[in-house]
Amino acid sequence: MSTTDFTVTPLPRWWQNRVVRKFFGHRLALLGLVMIALLTLACIFGPYLLPYDSLYIDLRARFAPPLTGDHYFGTDPLGRDIAARLLMAGRISLLVGFFAMLLATILGTFIGVVAGYGGRVVNAVLMRLVDGFLSFPTIFMLLALAVALQPSPIMITIIIALTGWMEVARIVEAEVRSLREREFVLAGRMLGLSQAHIMIREILPNCMGPIIVAATLTVARAILLEAYISFLGFGIQPPLPSWGNMLNGAQQYLGSAPWLAIIPGAAITIAVTSFNFIGDGLRDALDVRNDNF
Amino acid sequence: MAAFLFSRFLQSAVLLVIVSIIGFLVLYLMPGGPLSQYALDPGMTQEDIARITEQLGLNRPVHVQYLDWIWGLVQGDWGTSFRDGSPVTQVIARHVPATLLLMGSSTVIAVAIGTWIGIRGATHRYSGFDYIATVGAMIALSIPTFWFGLIGIYVFALRLDWLPAGNMYTIGDGSVLNYLHHLILPSIVLALVHIAIWSRFMRTATLDAISQDFVKTARAKGVSERRVVMKHVVGNALLPMITLAGVQVPSLLTGALVTETVFTWPGMGRLFLDSLGYSDYPVVMGLLMFSALLTIVANLIADITVALVDPRIRLA
């Protein structure tokens, strides 16, 4: 028997990355990541495992409190299983939140880069546009747009993005403006690279940190906004469930069936808190200038 | 100072123009445009609608209509409500006080609690208190306002029966105490998010002030720590908070709309939602423009106040 043939397995490459290690050292961010992973898995696979369909109406089982038989979270005023609805609603709410973030980030980054790199006039026009959009209370604007355009899930995603790109644009603009006079950009100009090449290939990669952080916080915001307008009845329309519209109408049963209000709201809070925690961890890990949090 | 004021006023004027263009585009997107309420009226034929469109000038080029609309706004002609035919300005004016009362009282709560948490968090940095305040603020920012309102109603109105579940006053009881009693819960609900925001900004501002040279000087002179914090640190840290108060207006209005809905509070938010329900677009547009106007004016006032208080700008 030989005693010499042991090998040291090196730590995987990704683990050696400083950013990754710092992020995983942030306990709350890790908690957020685990929560979102669990929530996503539950929303994807959960509905197949539950005994009831989210749209199955059973008027004999109306208002069953949580833990009645197989209704783990109880039933709603039509006798539909809340657990099943919660997971189906989660699919909608998370998807709307994710895609609204994606659209808002792309739009915000585009406007931010152009404003930051463009001349004084371009900058002034675009940044005043940002100020203009920021002057409207988000909910007022969202509701007005939701009424003006047909509130399908895709349209809701688009209008949430339309009211949520300004923060990203501001962050990117400030970042680009501070980068545009740096040596590597000057070198790029000297080499005769095109404006678009410098903006996309030279400057943009250096702004990724703040963009990623802003994008994470935008998911949280988008989920909240979807919940707000769906709660008010102008967002995702029934029978399609979303966390917000499950709460719509819960107020009138608050005294007799409080779980109708408590459960979907808790799901929203958990999802949004998790994204905020992840955003906070990313900000630490990516060394993004921390203004207020 | 004069130069500052001039450029700041100019900036607000430009912003007003941009906001009005955005507002007009939203108006243009409204289904059926201004005549939508009549489109489904069986008493009106397609020909009638076409004739009225012509009469009201709705077939003119967009920019002409925009200039017409904005000229009306400037002159105080904000249109009439579809619902009861009264002028939009009057309808809005009726609902403004309730919203301002709610926004005012929750701002007082948010500023008082938020500043205290922020100062304490900064002076006891990385303590247990600071950690809990940081995490607590992140959670508070994640709780949907309407849900917090529902939980508040469930606990304090339905279970404990300490506070009313909604409305601004009990009919037949116009006493100040009755108003205050109804104001408590919605103000706290609306304040939650803003306590979180104020505490974070105050913490950052206090930390900035603490590291300044004049604080070291004060300490070196032997000024007591309490006096250093209260006079030198907080005095300087409060300055950026004035700006924050202006910036918070749109977010306060958003919160107010949701809070008013849950508590059936007769303010602008409630009016906005009701008007959407009735397709009362003139009022919807009026509120949209009015809320943006309120934001711009609030930011202007905040910036001027800072300029008056801060000698670095006042004397420049």
Automatic annotation (TrEMBL), chain A:
Matching entries from Gene3D superfamilies are given as: MetI-like
Cite the Pfam families for this sequence: BPD_transp_1, OppC_N
Q: Which UniProt keywords apply?
A: Cell membrane, Membrane, Peptide transport, Protein transport, Transmembrane, Transmembrane helix, Transport
- Chief location of this protein within or outside the cell: membrane
- Record field: transmembrane: 28-50, 94-117, 129-148, 154-172, 211-236, 256-279
According to its UniProt record, where is this protein located?
Cell membrane
What CDD domains does the annotation carry? Answer: TM_PBP2
Q: Which GO CC annotations does the UniProt entry carry? A: plasma membrane
Query: What biological-process GO terms show up in the record?
Result: peptide transport; protein transport; transmembrane transport
Domain ABC transmembrane type-1 span(s) in chain numbering: 90-279
Q: How does the entry describe its membrane topology?
A: Multi-pass membrane protein
Q: Which InterPro entries match?
A: BP-dependent_transpt_permease (IPR050366), MetI-like (IPR000515), MetI-like_sf (IPR035906), OppC_N (IPR025966)
**What does the similarity note say?**
Belongs to the binding-protein-dependent transport system permease family.
Q: What is this protein called?
A: ABC transporter permease
Give the organism, scientific name: Thalassococcus profundi
Biological classification of the source:
Bacteria, Pseudomonadati, Pseudomonadota, Alphaproteobacteria, Rhodobacterales
TrEMBL record, chain B:
Q: Where is the ABC transmembrane type-1 domain?
A: 96-302
> Which InterPro entries does this one have?
BPD_transp_1_N, MetI-like, MetI-like_sf
Where in or outside the cell it occurs: the entry states:
Cell membrane
A GO cellular component annotation in the UniProt record: plasma membrane
Alphabetically sorted, this entry's keywords are: Cell membrane, Membrane, Transmembrane, Transmembrane helix, Transport
Q: Pfam families under this entry?
A: BPD_transp_1 (PF00528), BPD_transp_1_N (PF19300)
PANTHER family annotated for this entry? DIPEPTIDE TRANSPORT SYSTEM PERMEASE PROTEIN DPPB-RELATED
Q: Which family does it belong to?
A: Belongs to the binding-protein-dependent transport system permease family.
Q: Which GO terms describe its biological process?
A: transmembrane transport
Which named protein is this? ABC transporter permease
Could you name the domain of life of the organism this protein comes from?
A: Bacteria
What residue ranges are annotated as transmembrane?
12-30, 98-119, 131-156, 176-197, 237-263, 283-309
Bilayer topology term: Multi-pass membrane protein
